[in-house]
Amino acid sequence: MSKINLDKISTRAPEELDKKATKEKTEAMLVELDDLQNLLFAENQHSVLVVIQGMDASGKDGVIRNVLGNMNPQGVMVKSYKAPVAEELSHDFLWRIHSHAPARGMIQVFNRSHYEDILVTRVHKWIDDELAKKRMNAINAFERLLEEHNNTHILKFYLHVSPEEQHQRLEERLKDPAKMWKYNKNDFKEAKFWGDYRKVYEDCFEYCNNPEWTIVPADQNWYKEYVIAKALRDLLKGLNMQYPGIKKE
Amino acid sequence: MSKINLDKISTRAPEELDKKATKEKTEAMLVELDDLQNLLFAENQHSVLVVIQGMDASGKDGVIRNVLGNMNPQGVMVKSYKAPVAEELSHDFLWRIHSHAPARGMIQVFNRSHYEDILVTRVHKWIDDELAKKRMNAINAFERLLEEHNNTHILKFYLHVSPEEQHQRLEERLKDPAKMWKYNKNDFKEAKFWGDYRKVYEDCFEYCNNPEWTIVPADQNWYKEYVIAKALRDLLKGLNMQYPGIKKE
C-alpha cells in the first residue's frame, strides 16, 4: 500500500453527514453489538483484539466507555498500557502484551498497546531506526501468531485529532473539575512533538499494516464512535457465527 | 544445514571417553556454573532459556536435578509443561510459554516446551503438516523475539536414548518403588510410536534450528550431564560478563 500521509486525512466527519442520524445509527449498532458479543462468547471459536492508539486527548477513554465498554463486561476486557514498570522492562517488549491476548470467545481492548514501543520511544530517540525495524518485524510476527493460532481478529484504530482540537481538550482539563484528574503536566510538552509523532505513526502504518489500520477522524466524538462501532459490528457480523446448541458429551 | 538422521547418531558416549575423568570434569563445571549464574544474575543483562526435550524416560528430570537444579534457585526457574489445560487451550499455543520466558538475569529451564505442539500433536495427527509448518514459523519468530528483544540465549537439547535403553528404564519404573510414581500406563503405548517421533523430531531439527539443537547421547547419565553442563558453561563464559560494581544513582 502507499504511504499514509496524515496531513491529507481529515480529522472531521464528511461534511454531508448528518450528526443526529449518525448518532441514531450508532445507537442501533450498540444494540446489535450486544447480541453479537454474546454470540462470540457462546460460540467460543473466535476472539477479537481492539487496539486503540492516538495522541493524548484524542478520545481513547471516551470510545472505550461509550462503545466498547457498552457490552457484557464478562466478555470484554480492557487493558490500559502505561509506561512499563521494572518487571515488564526485564522482559521482551511483547511479554506484557501477550499475557493479555484475548482467549477464544473474548473481546480484548488495548488502550495504548505494543505500538507505544515504536512510537513514544522513537520520538524521544530512546531506540534507533534499526531497533525500531526489528520491533516492527516482531510485532508483525506476533499479530500473525494471534491470527493464525487463536482465530484472533485484530482491529487497529488510530484516533486522528487535529493539533487545534487536541490543544483545546488539554486546556479543558485545566478548567473542568471533572476532567482535572486527567491533566498531566507532560501532555503539553508531548504535544510539541506533534510532527515527530506524525512521522513515526506514518512509519508504523506502513510497516505494520497487516491487519490494516483504520484512521478514525476524531475531532467529533459522535463520528469517531460511529466509525468504531461500525467496524466492530461489521467484523463480528462477517464471522457468520452460530449458537452451538446443547453440548453432547 | 543438512537434515539430521537420528538413526546415524549414537546414543552413547564416544568409546575413548573415560567415565571417571568425565565425571570429575562435570563436577568442576558445576562449581564454575554456580559462579557464572551468580554473575548472570548480578549483571542483569542477559537471560538464558534451556529447552529440554526427549522421549519418556530419556532422563529429562535427572539432568534438571543434577545439573541445572544445582545452581541458586533464586536465579534458576524450572517450568514443566504438561498437556495444556482448558485456559491454555483457549489461547494461542505460545501464550503459556511466553509468560514463563526468562527475565533478564535469569535462567529458565523448560522440561518439555512449545516443541510438544509440533511433536506429540503430529505423531497423533491432531494437526496436519500445514498447521505444523505454521507453528514452526511461529516458534522461529518467537525465539527471535526472545533473542533480539531480551538478550535471551536459547539452548535446546534433545536427549537421545535408544529404544532399548528407554524400554529398560520404563520397566524399572514398574519394579523400583522409588520410581513407580513415574510410571504412566501410556508410556509403553507412546513408545510404540518411536518411528513417528523420530520423523517429527528430525523435521523440527530441520525447520527450527536457529538457534541450533544439541543432540545429546543420553543412554549414560554421566555423559548426558557432562554435555549439558559443558554447553551451559561455555555459553555463560562466552558472554564475558562483569560484576556491575556499586550503583551510582
Describe the structure.
- Two copies of one chain form a homodimer.
- Chain A has one domain: P-loop containing nucleotide triphosphate hydrolases (Rossmann fold), CATH 3.40.50.
- Chain A has ten helices and five strands.
- The longest helix of chain A is centred in the N-terminal third of the chain and has 25 residues, at 19-43.
- Chain A is of the alpha/beta class.
- In chain A, strands 2-3-1-4-5 form a five-stranded parallel sheet.
- Chains A and B meet through helix 6 of A and helix 6 of B.
The top-level CATH class of chain A is Alpha Beta
C-alpha geometry of chain A: globular
Beta strand % of chain A: 5-15%
Total tally of structural domains of chain A: 1
CATH superfamily of chain A, by name, is: P-loop containing nucleotide triphosphate hydrolases
| Mean pLDDT over the residues of chain A | 94
**Most residues in contact: chain pair:** A-B, 26 and 26 residues
CATH architecture of chain A: 3-Layer(aba) Sandwich
Count of DSSP helices of chain A? 10
Helix content of chain A: 40-55%
What is the quaternary state of this protein?
homodimer
- The stretches of 5 or more residues of chain A where confidence is low (pLDDT under 50) are none
- Main sheet characteristics of chain A: 5 strands, parallel
- Class by helix and strand content of chain A? alpha/beta
CATH topological fold name of chain A? Rossmann fold
Global Rg of chain A: 19 Å
Strand order of the largest sheet of chain A: 2-3-1-4-5
N- to C-terminal separation of chain A?
48 Å
Count the beta strands of chain A.
5
Helix-strand sequence of chain A: HEHEHHEHHEHHHEH
